[in-house]
Design a protein that fits this description.
This protein has nine helices and eight strands. The protein has a single domain, classed as Alpha-Beta Barrel (TIM Barrel), CATH 3.20.20. It has an eight-stranded parallel beta sheet with strand order 1-8-7-6-5-4-3-2. It has 225 residues and is of the alpha/beta class. The longest helix has 16 residues. 44% of the residues are buried. Helix 2 links the parallel strand 2 and strand 3. It binds D-xylitol-5-phosphate and zinc ion (ZN). The site of D-xylitol-5-phosphate has 22 residues, from strand 3, strand 8 and helix 8.
């Protein structure tokens, strides 16, 4: 199983975001997770597509390889901002199905711009919509906290939902990433992987530490990677 660590810049130093992105990539992260909040769908406001454009040149390894920008839209409506982030260089764009009036159309619009498309499920949100769109998406993102803030505690019921999502992905026969977002730490990441996740968002666990590489290595060690 290929595991991916996706640090969320929500917990980075917003006065030095470019530097932070370069440092966390040098520390071994696989994706950079952008938590976009609109103070409408969630009670917080973070940043727009301009930050994505500004950070895109920094999302590269020392060898110049592009590091995927994984945009998590906690916004309503979805479509205009999804298009703007596609323009700004997002590689993956995920949205909450309950924030779009036309989920299938929103997925198609993201893919039409050459981005990978994902759906994000809040703690009380069922996976039912996957019955009708799982063939069309590249990523399922399970929220293990309520969206809006970093530094919250992991909600254990997410483990059952991760198992269900893994079953659905296996049944689809498609190569779909199963990402989990919220409260991921060195001491619980193995449990989340055992439930079926392969990609892990971590904000405060990484950016709250002085040694980014040490934390990412400890996460990979816990994963047995
Ligand atoms: C919630 C955010 C957080 C963030 C991760 O809306 O999406 O889940 O990415 O934050 P930590 O890792 O600090 O829980
Ligand atoms: Zn997120």
């Amino acid at each position: 199983m290929t595991y991916r660590i996706a640090p969320s810049i929500l917990s980075a130093d917003f006065a030095r975001l470019g530097q932070e992105v370069r440092e966390v990539i040098a520390a071994g992260s696989d994706w950079i997770h952008f938590d976009v909040m609109d103070n409408h769908y969630v009670p917080n406001l973070t940043f727009g597509p301009m930050i994505c454009s500004a950070l895109k040149p920094h999302a590269k390894t020392a060898q110049g390889l592009a590091v995927p920008i994984d945009v998590h839209l906690m916004v309503q409506p979805v479509d205009a901002l999804a298009a703007a982030f596609a323009e700004a260089g997002a590689d993956l764009i995920s949205f909450h199905p309950d924030a779009s009036g036309h989920v299938h159309r929103s997925v198609q619009a993201i893919k039409a711009r050459g981005c990978q498309a994902g759906l994000v499920f809040n703690p009380a949100q069922s996976l039912e919509v996957l019955d009708w769109v799982i063939e069309d998406i590249d990523l399922v993102l399970i929220m293990s906290v309520n969206p809006g803030f970093g530094g919250q505690s992991f909600i254990d019921s997410a483990l059952r939902k991760i198992e269900d999502a893994r079953r659905r992905i296996t049944a689809s026969g498609k190569d779909i990433r199963l990402e989990v977002d919220g409260g991921i730490k060195v001491d619980n990441i193995r449990r989340v992987a055992d439930a079926g996740a392969d990609t892990f968002v971590a904000g405060s666990a990484i950016f709250g530490a002085s040694d980014y590489k040490g934390v990412i290595n400890a996460m990979r060690q816990a994963l047995g990677a």
